[in-house]
């Protein structure tokens, strides 16, 4: 690759800016952030963000402006119209349950999403709130009833997510809306990585620094293309929509003061503190 003006190393990839065009090597990391009263998308290079102008899913252009990562507030890296999630998608998470014949889908709400550094809030009546570290798929373009072979064309990239889940509510309620989609129950970020082999990435979750979950996405029962294809049979996926792909291993209850970290190879580290809900007056 020949750069006419300057080369910028981003993650493990090389970006070349010249004549207003932006060429991308296999792996880049995109962030969404707030700085000086503005919200923008950018490309993360080390500790520097290179601002982009326009829709992330419609060929945004570099503005030439940069900002230090330390000076911004990272936001959820995408604003989806819908948040789909998959349950029981690793054998290590099944316990005594049989291997499912098809992906078990449920929905989280876009309003449940929070970014890196934001607090997971334990509702006052919650008694058994758990973390679930997961790979999250970000959709690139409108997908309806696509095949497994076509699915990679509709995947923009991947990020890290935490499908926070209230176990007692999962058992007690008619559906999982309260248990899975309450406010702050959807940490996501810090970046969307494009160009990774999402079918073989290491997913790890730490609670207060202790490793609690560790497995590779090659162990998914239904892999990423299969999930995207399956969801698209029933739900039209739009640019920026996300799919939580399931959590490996076992999980444990959270308490105020805990710190949950979900790290995905090539994506980055998603860290959130856990706090109790404010008392009602």
Keywords, separated by commas or semicolons:
281 residues, mainly beta, SH3 type barrels, Fumarylacetoacetate hydrolase, domain 2, twelve-stranded mixed sheet, 3 helices, globular
> Class of the largest domain, according to the CATH hierarchy?
Alpha Beta
Largest sheet report: 12 strands, mixed
Strand content: 35-45%
Q: Specify the number of helices.
A: 3
Average pLDDT taken over every residue: 92
CATH superfamily of the largest domain: Fumarylacetoacetase-like, C-terminal domain
Number of domains: 2
Question: Layout of helices and strands, plus pairs?
Answer:
Elements: E1 6-10, E2 13-18, E3 21-24, E4 28-35, E5 38-45, E6 48-53, E7 61-68, E8 73-74, E9 83-87, E10 104-108, E11 113-114, E12 120-122, E13 129-130, E14 133-139, E15 155-162, E16 165-166, H1 167-172, H2 177-181, E17 186-194, E18 202-207, E19 210-216, H3 224-234, E20 242-244, E21 259-264, E22 268-276
Parallel strand pairs: 9-20, 11-17, 12-22
Antiparallel strand pairs: 1-2, 2-3, 4-5, 4-8, 4-17, 5-6, 6-7, 9-10, 13-16, 14-15, 14-20, 15-17, 18-19, 18-21, 21-22
């Amino acid at each position: 690759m020949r750069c006419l003006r300057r080369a910028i190393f981003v993650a493990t990839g090389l970006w070349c800016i010249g004549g207003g065009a932006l060429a991308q090597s296999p792996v880049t990391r995109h962030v969404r952030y707030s700085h000086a009263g503005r919200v923008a998308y950018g490309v993360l290079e080390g500790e520097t963000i290179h601002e982009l102008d326009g829709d992330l899913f419609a060929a945004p252009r570099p503005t030439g402006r940069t900002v230090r990562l330390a000076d911004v507030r990272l936001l959820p890296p995408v604003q989806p119209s819908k948040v789909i999630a998959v349950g029981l998608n690793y054998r290590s998470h099944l316990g005594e349950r049989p291997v499912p014949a098809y992906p078990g889908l449920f929905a989280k709400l876009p309003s449940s999403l929070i970014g890196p550094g934001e607090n997971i809030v334990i509702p006052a009546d919650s008694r058994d709130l758990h973390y679930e570290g997961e790979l999250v798929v970000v959709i690139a373009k409108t997908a309806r009833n696509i095949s497994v072979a076509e699915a990679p064309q509709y995947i923009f990239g991947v990020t890290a997510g935490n499908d926070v889940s209230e176990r007692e509510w999962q058992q007690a309620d008619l559906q999982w809306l309260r248990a899975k989609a309450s406010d702050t129950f959807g940490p996501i970020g810090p970046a969307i990585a494009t160009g990774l082999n999402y079918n073989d990435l290491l997913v790890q979750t730490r609670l207060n620094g202790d490793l609690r979950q560790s497995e590779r996405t090659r162990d998914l029962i239904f892999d990423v293309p299969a999930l995207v294809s399956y969801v698209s049979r029933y739900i039209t996926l739009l640019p920026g929509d996300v799919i939580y792909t399931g959590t490996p291993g076992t999980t444990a209850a959270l308490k105020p003061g805990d710190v949950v970290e979900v790290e995905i190879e090539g994506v980055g580290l998603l860290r959130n503190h856990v706090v109790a809900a404010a008392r009602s007056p």
